[in-house]
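in:
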């Protein structure tokens, strides 16, 4: 009887989700997103990702101006493993934005959980082209 119930549940809900191993290993490195504060451009403004895959997003800033990168929907719909700033690691419970006060690199290591289109932008500069989208399938 128990096997019949499980078989019925699988037919109704589809195959059961199954993962083995460490999901947060061997991250796929996304192209570095370089911020040019003089030209107000991003080197990359669209990323295509898959749910359940581990990524490393590197953001490089030239230091010309203070910028805050905001990506609340992406961060809310992802598991954030760590944020690395100048070789110092932070394991956050949640994330809304990151901010550069000077030149440098920030790496965000994460796994997107839900599919969707998630916008990111530099606060105050989104209308001037400093914005982009993560397309998660």
């Amino acid at each position: 009887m128990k096997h019949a119930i499980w078989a019925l549940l699988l037919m109704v809900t589809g195959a059961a989700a199954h993962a083995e191993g460490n999901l947060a290993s061997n991250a796929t490195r996304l192209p570095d997103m370089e911020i040019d504060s003089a030209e107000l451009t991003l080197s990359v403004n669209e990323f295509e990702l898959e749910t359940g895959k581990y990524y490393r997003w590197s953001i490089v800033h030239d230091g010309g101006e203070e910028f805050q990168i905001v990506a609340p929907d992406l961060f809310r719909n992802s598991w954030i493993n760590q944020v690395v700033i100048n070789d110092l690691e932070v394991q956050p419970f949640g994330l809304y934005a990151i901010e550069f006060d000077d030149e440098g690199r920030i790496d965000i290591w994460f796994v997107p959980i839900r599919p969707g289109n998630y916008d990111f932008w530099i606060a105050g500069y989104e209308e001037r082209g400093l914005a982009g989208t993560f397309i998660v399938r």
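note: Residues 2-13 form the longest helix (12 residues).
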